[in-house]
Batch of 4 targets.
Target 1
Amino acid sequence: MLVGVGGVSSRITIKLTECVDLARKNGLCDPYAIVVAHYSNKKTITKRTKVRKKTINPSFDETFSFDLCIDACGSDSSKSDSNNMYTVMPLGGADLCEVVISFKHASPGMGDDVFLGEIRIPVRGKQQQNAVQPSAWYFLQPRTSQSRPMRTCATPPGTRLSCDNSLGSLRLKLNYTSDHVFPLATYDQLYNVLIQSIEQKPITASAVHILGEISHNKTEVAQPLVRLFTHTNVIAPMIKALADHEISKLTDPTTIFRGNTLVSKMMDEAMRLSGLHYLHATLRPIVEEIFAEKKPCEIDPSRVKDVGAIEGNLHNLQDYVGKVFEAITKSAVKCPAILCEIFHNLRECAAKYFPQNKEVRYSVVSGFIFLRFFAPAILGPKLFDLTTEPVVSVMFS
């Protein structure tokens, strides 16, 4: 925006020459300027230009004059100016402090006119007045918080955001956690008590079992325990001892490990900790193929717009399921030794307490390896680091 500023006697004259590259609103721009003089006693004198139609590079060539000082009556010799003018005038004389020139897009019948930008020229005292260039280009700036209109908002009155909502507001809930890590020797007694749980008879008297009983969040307990026992190479016997006790209390083989007990959570964590590379080697190629091809697999009629597409979707689904099943069944030799040992122990425990049921020795293993390892990874590949691509529900649901 090109503005010329000049002073004659005790008056300041501002000439709006032109603007370039104003913002468009809905493809249109009908700009006009508002010039506001602010005085030290809070008095304001407002004038405006005519609207320039359909242009982002308007030429104004309009001149406005303001008194540098006003008397108690608020007299201003610029009242004879033909430009539209109004004043807000409290009692008492004052000096001119600042001139604000703002631009708006005229949108009659559409509510408030759209703000395009503003500049603020400080002119209080000789030093600031002499610093103003007689003719200069100014970059339009965002509206300051003091000049933003008051609007109704959901923020309770009297709060910091209730007075300034032109850009919206963001509500955050922050949770701060402080973890204190002590020297390793501090944990020696706890470490020894936990390690002794493997040999503790009965297992219900062990520290590990007691932790599982008193903890509401079994996952938070299982994660550090699995890491501890994996580090000391005793994770398999620890899970075997807990699983043997849990299975011994059951009368129905179909309910084995169906609850969220400590041993089931430790199994989940052990599979993720020791089997993540195995999981990636088994499923990542087919998951990458699914993302690359982006074939729809939705077969629910209520979720398919074109019912005729269900047959093709079913073919895609069967093709992918076949490839996944083949990849899993051929991966047995790649399964980590520690997981093979854990699954062997679970199978022996199930067969020990349900010798007449020939299927339980297989279902107890498949319940973990399929339902709690491979299946969650297929449905949520990002959670298992199988992909970084956004998951489309019709692909994996």
Target 2
Amino acid sequence: MRLVRLLRVYAALRAAGPGVTRSLSSDSGSRGVPGQVDFYARFSPSPLSMKQFLDFGSVNACEKTSFMFLRQELPVRLANIMKEISLLPDNLLRTPSVQLVQSWYIQSLQELLDFKDKSAEDAKAIYEPIRTRLQVSSLCSMACKMIFTDTVIRIRNRHNDVIPTMAQGVIEYKESFGVDPVTSQNVQYFLDRFYMSRISIRMLLNQHSLLFGGKGKGSPSHRKHIGSINPNCNVVEVIKDGYENARRLCDLYYINSPELELGELNAKSPGQPIQVVYVPSHLYHMVFELFKNAMRATMEHHADKGVYPPIQVYVTLGNEDLTVKMSDRGGGVPLRKIDRLFNYMYSTAPRPRVETSRAVPLAGFGYGLPISRLYAQYFQGDLKLYSLEGYGTDAVIYIKVIMPILNCNET
């Protein structure tokens, strides 16, 4: 069913633009890659739950095991999404931004394939002469472990700007060729899959680099983290952090900002702080984007009055769900426009000026809400909007509850 759906979508996309879909092999720097993409794309990525991430990272995390898994899993995930990228319409593939994104994926796959025939012990043989001459076995062992980890970190950093760069490519395509409703729907389907793939790949890269990269292990604020996962994530503190940073931006732009009214109810453990097992950066991204939207709507809807109603946030923890509800009085939107707010080709803000192909700002691309929803859905949660036109909007984040890990390893 998945293959049939993909073929239908991309057949429609191809019909939207003239020409034959560009092949990866047309790039001189990607010789040998198409065959590897075809091979690894035959396999489905291995789904990983929060519990699996915790089980691996919290109990005797083994760098060798991580290496053996990632050297197979990462090429599979990269190849699957590269296959889908190659099926995009020719005119979209020709945009400089999409070509840049494609080149990043090609380079990353090539670097990972260097490890496909190597065991975790191969690196030690490379450093054995040094070990013999210098008699510094601990330093040599450290160097051995860093070979693959350095590659993982390099790939992670290379892909930092994938979201805004792909966004710019879609804008270039839309401005040059226009987009009809069918094409828009199919591009939406592709981008949801593409960005969810990026989130999942980045999660793997972050877990390995943070567990075995050696940096940040001594940081008091992250000492209890399992990679990027906080076993005791204080939800209210993350929300306050997101509010303060969004408020600074609002103050810079509007010279004022709405206040925050924050309430919480721990129905599972009354009287206790609301803490769950989660990735703080994911939660922060969601609430930060929602605060920016709520502040902008509030400031513009009440600009004539000069009095700005507060943004109300209520957090509840139940047996199954952690729920964060953010309510603003920014005027709301009609029901027929709710779905558009999650469309990558729709934004109520002016398009940002793009000075370079890298470090493109997200503001104005309309990607805040759809990407935030993907973050929520990644660990079986969701993000929904409920609007009262003329009054305001409620944004609700649902997160699947995994209770904090007590007495977790602090080393």
Target 3
Amino acid sequence: MEKQLQEARSKIIDSLAIYQKEASGWVLDEILHLDLNMAKYTPLKAEKYNKPPIVYRGEDAVDKFLECLETEQQYIEEKLSFIEPMRIENEEEQMFENAINCHICGFEMGADRVRDYCHLTGKYRAAAHNECNLNYSFTGRIPVILHNLRGNDSHLIMQGLGKLKNKEINCIPNNIDSLQFMNASLERLAFNLSKSDADMFPILQRYVESEKVPLLLRKGVYPYDYMDSVEKFDKETLPPQECFYSVLNDEHIADADYNHPTRVFEAFSCQSLGDYHDLYLKSDVLLLADVFENFRNVCLKAYNLNPCHFYTIPALAWQACLKMTEVELELLTDPDVYLFIKEGLRGGISMISNRFSKANNPYVPDYDPDQDSSYVMYLDANNLYGWAMSQPLPTAEFDWLNEEEISNLDITQISDDSKEG
């Protein structure tokens, strides 16, 4: 496979037929997006530390990407190593003295209270337990967020990592696939966010003139199959509409979809297809940054949990459940108890199969007065999953019943919300 990649280095996309013939393990209908382009953006809460996005075009794009990540890591660690002195106003000092609960864990404080503040800006946050404050620090982990990482970019990045020499590679991943949190295309995510408010894209607006922002509030249109050589980056105009045909989807783009890249090409004064390509890549990354930052802010506001510390939405949801309910689950150490509970779990494919039912309804034309009247009632229930998940569940004090207790057990006498069950 490496030999094939080297031979195809000059192309952006190679057809499926070649790789089927060579028994490639790829399963996409149209493969190979070689390491030809990359873009990155690092959003930091303190705006003065944010730097413009980097867009790079070249056959060593993955190597350049990893190089930029290393430079970014050094920059972030250097900034965080300097501790800015705390700045606290008289009003904030009074709030500290009157505070009852720790702003980190939410529990009541005693004499161990301290002033928690941001070491990067010096801004006072709130009162906190001393232990909470010590644990509320930079872990050294810098997550990198990529959309659909598992399906595409990870293959190229792994190839690039294989070239690193004298570098420690940790088996604990720092990269996050945003698709595992927001299971939709970037186009759909950006569209949904733009429907609520165009001002939800502060990062994009920082680097794009305000009158041009609406043109980028959707996923761009790109002639993937047409781009089969790097020489096409030098073309001074967009290719005709038929060149936007997608082999993967087996369809042409609509007139409206073709009008969009035409307007973008003109509005941003693109001098070549390469300029349009770079803008397409840059806008994609900035849109993803805005979409994920919005999602992160929602999670922080609702649960005070940062999704950057998780790898998937189920992991985040599980921790949110434990945090918001304040449930302490008993650790099962008896394998028989564990297996007993596991056997009681229900899941998998769910369906409702309907039998044929004919009503003899006196209010319809084919009513038969010689037969008993009957009716078909349509019932609908909302939020079945939400209802089920809000029902009481066992959390601790699991114990086996003896024979006598089992014989005297009448589960019909146990209420659904009983503290014991």
Target 4
Amino acid sequence: MLQSSSLKNIFYINRNNFINCKGVLQRNTEFNRNKRLFSSTSPSKMRFLQYTCRNNGPQRLGVQLSQGSDIIEISAVTASVPNNLVDFLKGGDEYMEKAKRIIAEAKSVVGPNEVNILAPLTKPDKILCVGLNYKSHCDEQK
């Protein structure tokens, strides 16, 4: 369930998780408030990145565990994980579990200076609130 909320500029993955406009996966504390009372760990943040290598290689998907840290390559390790965030999120728990295993192993890592960071969401399915979507606005522009 991937939903966009233009008011908050966030993308909901499910009721427990969302990605903000910077591509950072966060927990929705509204739904996890009672759950956190019984947990001894604090929620962790990780940043999903779409990027290309400086030598203009293909687009890849990776995770950065803290600001400025190395990037753990996800899509470069296995072809079964897509190289863009939209398809990754549509894959749900299956892709998330694969990503967790890849992150735990951290076999393929690149430095942040070795890549060109791309927009968090490339090739979106829909672009909302563009004036040309509305016929009356199109007529005004002529």
